[in-house]
Amino acid sequence: MADFTLGKIFPLLMGQSNLWQSIAVEPAADAIEVDDSLVLGSVLLSLVAIYFAAKLGSEICARINLPPVLGELVGGVLVGVSALRLLVFPESGSDGTDSLIMQFLERTGGLSEAQVPLLFQTQSEVIAVLAELGVIVLLFEIGLESDLKQLMSVGTQAIVVACVGVVVPFAAGTAGLMFFFGIPAVPAIFAGAALTATSIGITSRVLSEMGRLTSKEGQIILGAAVIDDVLGIIVLAVVASLAKTGEVDVTNVIVLIVSATAFLLGAILLGRIFNEAFITVVSWLKTRGGIIIPAFIFAFVMAYLGAALHLEAILGAFAAGLVLDETDERNELQKLVIPIADLFVPIFFVTVGARTDVSVLNPFIPANQEGLIMSIFLVAVAILGKVVTGASVFGQGSLNRLAIGVGMIPRGEVGLVFLGVGAASGVLSAPLKAAIVVMVILTTFLAPVLLRVVFQSPVEAQAEAQQVDS
Amino acid sequence: MADFTLGKIFPLLMGQSNLWQSIAVEPAADAIEVDDSLVLGSVLLSLVAIYFAAKLGSEICARINLPPVLGELVGGVLVGVSALRLLVFPESGSDGTDSLIMQFLERTGGLSEAQVPLLFQTQSEVIAVLAELGVIVLLFEIGLESDLKQLMSVGTQAIVVACVGVVVPFAAGTAGLMFFFGIPAVPAIFAGAALTATSIGITSRVLSEMGRLTSKEGQIILGAAVIDDVLGIIVLAVVASLAKTGEVDVTNVIVLIVSATAFLLGAILLGRIFNEAFITVVSWLKTRGGIIIPAFIFAFVMAYLGAALHLEAILGAFAAGLVLDETDERNELQKLVIPIADLFVPIFFVTVGARTDVSVLNPFIPANQEGLIMSIFLVAVAILGKVVTGASVFGQGSLNRLAIGVGMIPRGEVGLVFLGVGAASGVLSAPLKAAIVVMVILTTFLAPVLLRVVFQSPVEAQAEAQQVDS
């Protein structure tokens, strides 16, 4: 006998109305379940909080001549775990009872206290995925804005900048922690490795906001950040196996190097084929979404491949945008992606801010003090170790070398992955972990400000004027 | 001592890389957890499957002169629980082990069998929310395309069409089931009530695809569908309390009527204020997303209010779009919403198809036969009971009355909510439940085809020609 219970057919349509909950004949009293309309409601409220925070922050920053992305980060801190607690995540140790949105739904939406942890978990998962889609859309858009040929023309400089930006902070950080602070070798190596990363997300967004993404400096920074991301993944594989077994798992490292190289080179070499296939497909399609849907199928497949090859989803999305050549279809696509990015990208930056527990910066909490002293050293190395990379650029005329160095400063993603692996391995002491967190926070939040300053320095303004003349 | 464990700060950034899983020093062997990169990977693969199904289906339909939305529904059936099982949902009784995407991730992505149910649950929740956001975006866009004044000018006709479309199928269905099939009164009333609904989503999308949304017929259908949705919610409250206690809970019904009226009238009356506030805010904003973000804050707040008042989120989103007057800002907004809708809306229609178990239509399964015979009657009443509504339109000249009636046919949402409440109350027999499901499937999938036919009938083509002349 076929089973025709309610849920078997079209349950979405039912879930979509909250009738089902409000007038249901048999409320499920025994098992804890959460109605779909509560999930939707909590996601809608979270998105409203995110968009308010994003616009408030970015508009204020725009008016005081700071990059809007900084405003989104700070707006996120404001609504997040450190302040208003409108947007909190399970990883902060919360079970949702301290989330203002959950409290609001308890008072107004018929949410019971027993349901809070389950609803909170689901809401957090959905927002987290939306944020990850946000950074995927951002890097796809950055890839579209970038020009593969231009990026290749500064390829050698970008490789040098990336290598110097990995070696100098790693060596200086590790040595300094060992000699000045008496940290043992393995934790010092971990902390040094965490100094090597560069956040493509922050850097590319600021460059794009300032209209500098396609400048020579911008392309060198972007290329170096991409290579840096790959280098960081390889360095992490080395230090992680070092911490685990005391030896380096050479096979794993070689597999990573080969797959990273194959993926990026493969994307570039097959780019022409992808590009022609894209144009052919778009010319076939007659219904709505005829450009945007094939483009996002391509971007999502590449993002998936990037993640599946133990690289990153954002590298795949960037490569997807990059290989689409300048054609009418791509120019049209670039326009269509703008509103999608406007809607998705702030979710990423606001949640980054919301998840950041800035109480670690408070020097009046005694437990913070040892870490804060160490962090002064780490921040100095983190900034100087990247700024010197600008000096390593060769063969280019009147470049703003300072801007290139500053562009490599924000840590973000990979730096925190190092922290995570180090924390899980148990080799990092609490003050050292705190110091790494402070370093990541300060470089991430300061870099947009510094980038804005160095790109508006007199040298740069002069160079710009010359460019306009020529 | 402050706790600086990995997860406490910036966990998103870490989750975003799957390094954490692949090179983690201590794999979590005791507790079942799923890495964030697997969640992202499963969502990306699901979206790719959805977009493939949507484009394949809609392009084929467009070429054989059928509405593309039908192609998205059928494409969904193809990848869903009835066929390829790329996209299945827990409500089908699946624990994910029969999902092709889960099986793929088990073979290639390091997913263990024990993790499958948890990952499957999370992936399904995320896709379900994206689908619900999809229908919210759709109704917001439909609201933007509609003109409040035009809709008000056909308001009386829309109310008459909605009321006739509720009373006729309800009376005919209930009476027929009682007299021809010997069904007792309460289940017959439930089944009759399920015949009253109209799916705004399907109808408005088809009208929009055919460019008929702003025709007089289109506006009457849209207005009647909105009113029908509200009436359906009230009818459900009545029959549900009837099944539960044998009496009608008058207070609940009055609260619903008052809140529904207050919400819709309030939105319309306060529309001018919302509209001016929107224009003022947009003129203040200088950073990216200056139109799209305030618009979506408004749409999401209204959708939340609609759901919170025990109406529907889509009613709120529709009202939000509707009250924004024809201004430069709104025309710009309408353009910006297009790519967002292109990306979100197919997720809704494809998942509707994917969740539909079409095996209930198979007459060779003996258990289906009794239900199928009853469903022939229900489908006939469902179609004829709505087609007659066209005859009730008065005071309008050369209208395509058949098109108005046909536009009210698709059941979708509310019809299934009735089924759900009836199933939970235990009053519906298995064959009757099956018959209601078949009725909903057939009206939902046939209506786009019928609408296309009646809007291209000679009478209509003639009327169109006259319109062009005048």
The helix/strand class of chain A is mainly alpha
* Residue share in helix of chain A: over 70%
- How many domain units of chain A? 2
How does the overall form of chain A come out from the CA principal axes?
Answer: globular
User: What's the Cα radius of gyration of chain A?
Assistant: 24 Å
Q: What is the CATH domain class of the largest domain in chain A? A: Mainly Alpha
Give the distance, in angstroms, between the N- and C-terminal Cα atoms of chain A: 80 Å
Query: Residue ranges of chain A: pLDDT <50 for 5 or more in a row?
Result: 1-29, 458-462, 464-470
How much β-strand is present in the residues of chain A? under 5%
Mean pLDDT of chain A: 83
Give the H and E element order of chain A.
HHHHHHHHHHHHHHHHHHHHH
The name of the CATH architecture of the largest domain in chain A is Up-down Bundle
Largest interface: A-B, 128 and 127 residues
- How many helices of chain A? The count is 21
